[in-house]
């Protein structure tokens, strides 16, 4: 079952990347950093257009690995700030939690949050909440939240 969960999530990520090819933002920047959640791990963000991005996170703890991917839309005008930018973002994604001694979980995520983008350095901080419709091993709705930061490369 673990391999099936990985295949489903990776197929979803590949489908998102293929559908986004040819687009670039911030202009085509890639961010890499940490996400503090349960579990804690690595966060990546690929800007695809000026207001759209693909966010992928991989986290782990003792007997669990989590992989999720979200397609995000950003509104840069909702919360204007004097320095930097503070977009509100929202999106839709997929998630897999691969567990060593328990059934794996596959789910559909909705996500909303805030991200502060600095003017002078290619760095961000973010806070997000994500209601998840867990599909396996049983259907239920649960909530997740995370905060993190990333450094951006061009």
Can you offer a commentary on this structure?
The chain has 154 residues and is mainly beta. It has one domain (2-153): Porin (Beta Barrel), CATH 2.40.160. The chain contains 1 helix and 8 strands. An 8-stranded antiparallel barrel has the order 1-2-3-4-5-6-7-8. Strand 7 and strand 8 (140-153) form a beta hairpin. The protein is elongated.
List the helices and strands and how they pair.
Blueprint (H helix, E strand, L loop, with lengths): L1 H19 L9 E7 L3 E8 L4 E10 L2 E12 L12 E12 L5 E13 L5 E14 L3 E14 L1
Number of domains: 1
CATH class term: Mainly Beta
Query: What is the overall shape?
Result: elongated
Radius of gyration: 15 Å
**What string, H for helix and E for strand, traces the elements in order?**
HEEEEEEEE
Uncertain runs are 20-25
Mean pLDDT: 87
User: Helix share of residues?
Assistant: 10-25%
Notable characteristics:
154 residues, mainly beta, Porin, 8-stranded antiparallel beta barrel, 1 helix, 12% helix
Task: Sum this structure up briefly.
12% of the residues lie in helices and 58% in strands.
């Amino acid at each position: 079952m673990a391999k099936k969960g990985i295949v489903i999530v990776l197929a979803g990520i590949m489908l998102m990347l293929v559908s986004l090819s040819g687009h670039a933002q911030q202009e085509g920047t890639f961010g890499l950093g940490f996400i503090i959640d349960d579990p804690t791990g690595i966060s990546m963000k690929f800007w695809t257009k000026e207001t759209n991005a693909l966010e992928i996170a991989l986290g782990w703890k003792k007997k669990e690995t989590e992989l999720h991917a979200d397609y995000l839309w950003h509104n840069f005008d909702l919360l204007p700030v004097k320095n930097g930018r503070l977009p509100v973002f929202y999106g839709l994604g997929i998630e897999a939690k691969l567990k060593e001694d328990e059934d794996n979980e596959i789910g559909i995520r909705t996500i909303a949050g805030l991200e502060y983008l600095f003017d002078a350095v290619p760095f961000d901080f973010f806070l997000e909440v994500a209601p998840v419709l867990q599909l396996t091993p049983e259907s239920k709705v649960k909530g997740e939240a995370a905060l993190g930061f990333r450094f951006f490369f061009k």
